[in-house]
Amino acid sequence: MRNINFKFIPVFSILAAACSQSNAQSATQIYGLVNLGISSQQLSGQSRVSTVSNGDMTTSFFGIRGSEDLGGGLKAVFTMESFFRADTGELGRGNSDVMFQRQSWVGLSQDGAGSLRIGRLPSPNWLTTIRFGPFGGASITPYILQTYLPSALQPMITGSSTSDASWANSVGYSSPVWAGFSMLAVYAMSEGGSNGKRFGGSFNYEAGALAASLSFEKLSQMSLQFGAPVPALVTAARPNYVATDDNTAQLAVAYDFNVLKLFGQLSQTRLQNTTPIEITLTTSQLGVSVPAAGGKLMASWAQTRMQQTAKTDLQRATFSFGYDYNLSKRSDVYAALISDKVSNLSRGNGFTIGLRHSF
Description:
This protein is mostly beta strands. The chain is built from four helices and 20 strands.
């Protein structure tokens, strides 16, 4: 007799119930993406690890979204999205993820006035990050490796990884587009926890070939573990620093020449606590994508400089080069090479090949 994993029964019950409610005035959709590949990764100063990787280009997820027309241009809307590990069949990017870690919210949308949402919302700074790089939200893109995906063995890290790409207990407003301009604001309540209060926003512009964004986030009254997460890894380069305040600003721009598209990003993060010690991280990224033979070539370089009070500055430089080929509108295959170097550590090199399918 086959074993049944009852953990998944509530998930599919939700999906079935949601879809059964569709009618002429409302619509519900199930969608998602599966991404698996084979990678051999070696970040600077670390040993090589070969894996069947889940999500080097996009983390696998499934979602449910829907809307109901309330009349007069007003709609009730909702979205719930869950990460999953397609290589093992487990929910979440890791064991610490909640079920709908990617996002889960309900809101109201009014034509000409924008939308108001409540729940777990993507942060404005994360949305700017994935929009203005040739690899999008891929974990192999240098900018994300240096901001949102730190390694416990690396001295280079920003607060973005701890704050995560989405914020729980949030209220958000997104404006309509006026002559190419739009804005987004998200506020997350601390609810007495160690995550603290969070406020983020972005001012965006898009017209023709040009797109630009200025995003920011301010985290306060929190307990953010920076550097070495366990005492055994504490060194002068990896201090066990606990930040109470995190301020980040990012300026990003992209221009599409049709024959190629250029990307640029510049951000700065300042970490502070009750001591005089302050850590500042400045990250820049230059990238390009070029249409080629049914797909696109992608290249991206990023550098982070970390300045610490009374300590030697550190630098990290990462370069990725890849090709993504479209098998169809919903399926593609990709391959990428990665090189990574941190001050005073040996260079690391890696590669990944994989397949994505959206549904």
